[in-house]
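lol ok so funny story. i was supposed to be doing the assay writeup but got distracted and ended up predicting the structure for this chain instead. priorities right. anyway since i did it might as well share w the group, maybe its usefull for someone
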Amino acid sequence: MVMDINEIREYLPHRYPFLLVDRVVELELGESIVARKNVSINEPFFNGHFPHHPIMPGVLIIEALAQAAGILGFKTVNKLPRDGYVYYYVGSDNVRLKRPVMPGDQLRLEARVIFAKRSIWKFACRATVDNELVCEADIICAERKVA
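and the output, tada:
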């Protein structure tokens, strides 16, 4: 299952400059997702991180992984933000950042469901660039109904 940016925007409440998933290239409901983030020098965080050696902040790589995981969760349970649902990033375990991500890189974002109980989801996540590991983490999200 492939999702373009228009469909992604239906499943994530994030918007520029905080929407960090550009395309979904694989999705198996209840199992896994593979998404992409194209990293451009036009990203607003590069103005200050770092102007003479721009690298994508590690926390934003983790956020991109969490957003990909959120899409998987939303699609699996067939719920949408417009219906009043949100996935909150509530924690992470075993986080390792392996190498910098720079303008021109394309992040491959992978998330696999470890477990889903009631409204808590745990995902095993990996980000790579050109098949080289950039980040790995177990990410925990909570599905909530908001007013």
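Residues 39 and 104 are 6 Å apart (CA to CA). Residues 5-145 form a domain with the Thiol Ester Dehydrase; Chain A fold (CATH 3.10.129.10).
back to the writeup now i swear
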